Amino acid sequence: MTAEKKDVLQPVDDTARRLGKTLIRTARQAALGTIDPVDGSPFVSRVSLATAMDGSPVFLISRLSGHFNNLEKDGRCSLLVGEPGKGDPLAHARITLIGTAAIVPAGSERDNIRRRYLSRHPKSSLYADFPDFAFWKFKIVRASLNGGFGKAFAPKVSDLTTPLEGVEGLADMEEGAVSHMNSDHADAVEKYAKQVGAKNSGWKLAALDPEGLDLTSGDDVARLWFDAPLQSAQDLRPVLVALAKKA
């Protein structure tokens, strides 16, 4: 008689949602699994990662790479995100994203994604516009979140992405707002980083979205979440001012 399989999944609560989103938003790299068209075998490689404003992972890869060729033939793929720390790597949080990836065509969306990606990976500006390189956007279909031993979740797409309805103008404001904060309010940006426990200095605002700020200092990435999502693009300035006064 076969023993009944135990359901190890826990209910997805706000803590799990925040963990999953933070893992994706702060990831600098991911293991990318594609399908080898030769025999359908899994093909795993590494890509540098950033996110679109809605939280969808994006990456920049060359047509000369094996995974580019694989994705052109079959866009189904997966990403493993999560940095192991000290001790047992399996004790650290990670998330597997399963879905599809597609090249981002020229246009305003690609411009926004390019800007956000290069703010996270500035050295990529050396080759980002080479003709053999393309930005890809990953569409999450399902996910498996592991917060460590005994902490398994199956978040929905809506648990990991950020709605943009009502804040469409934020994408148009982002470049100017990021540049302004870094050049004229560097002290406020440092305060934002301290609020999330950053110990070092030299922080810059890399990107923003309706739910928070992405901050970078060299290879370090930090995420500052707003107390509540922005309801309109015009809410951004007062929220940034309030956060600066909070520290």
UniProtKB/TrEMBL annotation:
Residue ranges of every copy of the DUF2470 domain listed in the record: 175-243
Gene3D superfamilies: Electron Transport, Fmn-binding Protein, Chain A, PNP-oxidase-like
Alphabetical list of Pfam families matching this protein: CREG_beta-barrel, DUF2470
GO CC annotations on file: cytoplasm
UniProt protein name: Uncharacterized protein
InterPro entries: CREG_beta-barrel (IPR055343), DUF2470 (IPR019595), Haem_oxidase_HugZ-like_sf (IPR037119), Split_barrel_FMN-bd (IPR012349)
Domain of life assignment: Bacteria
PANTHER family: CELLULAR REPRESSOR OF E1A-STIMULATED GENES, ISOFORM A, CREG1 PROTEIN
CREG-like beta-barrel domain boundaries: 18-152
